[in-house]
Structure formats: structure tokens, C-alpha cells
Amino acid sequence: MPPMFPPIFRHYSIHQLAPYINWTFFLFAWGIKGGRYGGVAAALEQHDCPACREHWIRSFATEAEQGEAREAVRLYLDARRRLVELEVQGVCAHGLFALFSAHAEADDIVVHRPDGTAQHLPFMRQQHTDPKRPNLCLADFIAPEGYDDPTHTADRLGAFATTVDELPDTDDPYERMLVQTLLDRLAEAAAEKLHQEIRTHLWGYAPDEQCTVQQLFAEEYQGIRPAVGYPSIPDQSFNFVLYDLFPMRELGITLTENGMMRPHASVSGLLFAHPAARYFAIGAVSDEQLADYAHRRGTTPEALRKFVPQS
Questions:
Q1: Can you say whether residue 32 is alpha, beta or left, with left for phi > 0 and alpha for psi between -120 and 50 degrees?
Q2: Cis ω on the peptide bond leading into residue 234 (within 30° of 0)?
Q3: Contact 158, 271 (CB under 8 A)
Q4: What is the mean pLDDT of residues 230-235?
Q5: What does residue 110 show for φ and ψ, rounded to 5 degrees?
Q6: Over the stretch 30-74, which tens digit does the pLDDT of each residue have?
Q7: What contacts 199, CB < 8 A, 6 or more positions away?
Q8: Short-list 95, 209, 107, 111, CA closest to 157
Q9: Cα–Cα distance for residue pair 152/144, rounded to 1 Å
């Protein structure tokens, strides 16, 4: 069976993505780890004046917390200034979505490519020993071959990638980090916005969804979008599998010999629509599972060892 439709490209301006920026993770990149500081955006967007900023800062109980809140305000204001400048420079984000017919075979997902051939996507399974929790694998969220799914969510697999235009480097280390952390957040914001459009329109399995941005950040929607390098797909070299699956290169994305994406501000991954799909971490991988995974990838355990966390 062919994919449901040709790959779809999207292009987003910065003002389209600004509401989808998760400022908590932006601040985390700067060493400000308290999630409560991420509320700086909501606080200052409603009342952005020196008195209101100070009121928000003093709402924190301790002197240390107020110091971090003050730093969060400074970083946020610098970031908003730089976002305006990036918009003027014409910086945009770009997204790609492809939808495939698919079925599960043990811990593999088999997708049907445009030329009619099948491609196996190998995954790893959790190896914890807690009898109260299932040992999950992403293939669990795709139906086996021949399964009749009238909703067409369990026999479909999506793939996505987003990237942001690169900028010339600067000699100013603060400005360099500010821009890079913003571009990283914009790539994630593009993934958030694209995923919302996929659920409600492009794939359309949740057409009546009415999530706020905060609900999106809390993942209060149907389906998941595990990204390469994240806990469900910890193997960064899996990018080579995706690169063969759909046209990431048409976004201008290239891969290093280790599977890292260029531009640096890029995200890639898969999309699952099943209502039971949820995020999970693979955790440590045994030598036995690494050997099995390497066999299914068509390579050696030694080649994958540096990419896969082991017990």
C-alpha cells in the first residue's frame, strides 16, 4: 500500500511560532531549572512594565528564588528582542510530514514506501523487571498485519521533521548562545504547531481538539510524537533510518557521520495516533537486546554501542 498522500511541507514565520515557544525549556538551557520561572512569559505579556516585573519577581519567597526570577526576566526580555530581530532578518522554520500505511512485526514497524516496497523500522523494548508495568516498545502502538482498524489510527504511522534557518556565527558568546537556544526552541515550537495541525487537519484523527498552548505543553492530546534522541528513541543514529524513509534533505537537513542533524536547530521523529500511545523511556539496554537490535538494523553491536544506553 502506498503512503496516504505525498509528503507535506510547511513554512512558519517567527510570529506564528512565538506562542508555541516553551519558555521553561528555554530557561532550562541557561541553568534556570525551576519550572515555575517559565511563567515569566505569561506574567510579562499581560503587564510588561518595570513595576509589574518587580511584582512578579517578589512573588517568589526566598532571595535565591527572586534572583533566579530576575535572571529569567532578563533572559526573556533579551530573547523577545532577538526574536523581533530574527523576524526582520527573515528567519523562518520549516516542517515536513509524511503519513504511511504500516503494521507491526514484533518490535519492528513495517512501513510501505512510495515505490511499493516495505521498510522495516526496528525499535527497542523496555527491559525493567517491574511486574506492575508493561515493557513497552513503540511497535506496540501499531496494529499487526491484517488487523481491522476502522479508525485508521493503529495501522498508520507518521514521520516528521522541523528545522530553522541558520544564521552567521557571532564572536559574542552571549549572543551566540541566545540565538542558538532561541533557534532550538523555534524548531521545537514548529514541531508543536505542526503536530497540532496534523492531529486536527492533515491526518485529522482529532478534528475537534481544542487544546490551549499550555495543554499542548502538558501533552493533553491524543497520540505522541517521539523524537530521535529522546527516551523512546534514544539511538541518535536512527536518524539514518528516517533519512531513508522520507525526504528530510528537501528541508535542507543533512546528517553527520554520527547521525546528528544539521542545521543544529532541527527535530525529527515519528507520530502515533492510537489513544493508548504514551511516552516512555527505554532505559538501560542489555548486551542481548543490543545484539538483537543491531541485527535488525543490519549493523553490529559495536557500531551502535556509543548511541545506546547500556546496563
A1: beta
A2: no
A3: yes
A4: 94
A5: -100, 120
A6: 999 878 888 888 877 766 788 888 888 999 999 999 999 999 999
A7: 205, 206, 209, 221, 222, 223, 273
A8: 111
A9: 13
Give the pLDDT of residue 2.
Answer: 44
Question: How would DSSP label each residue in 271-286?
Answer: EB--TT--------B-
Question: Cβ(98)–Cβ(115) under 8 Å?
Answer: no
Per-residue model confidence as pLDDT tens digits over 142-176: 999 888 767 677 889 999 999 999 998 889 999 99
H helices within the chain, ranges in order? Answer: 14-17, 23-28, 40-46, 50-58, 63-88, 173-197, 213-217, 238-245, 287-297, 301-304
Assess contact for 194 and 162: CB atoms under 8 A.
Answer: yes
Claim: this prediction has a pTM higher than 0.90:
yes
Separation of alpha carbons 165 and 71, rounded Å: 28
Single out the residue of 268, 238, 237, 235 nearest to residue 252, CA to CA. Answer: 268
Alpha carbon of 54 to those of 28, 35, 208: distances in Å? 21, 19, 40
pLDDT digit string (tens) for 236-278?
A: 999 999 999 999 999 999 999 999 999 999 999 999 999 999 9
> Which 8-state DSSP code applies to residue 249?
G
Q: What nine digits make up the cell of 15?
A: 510570529
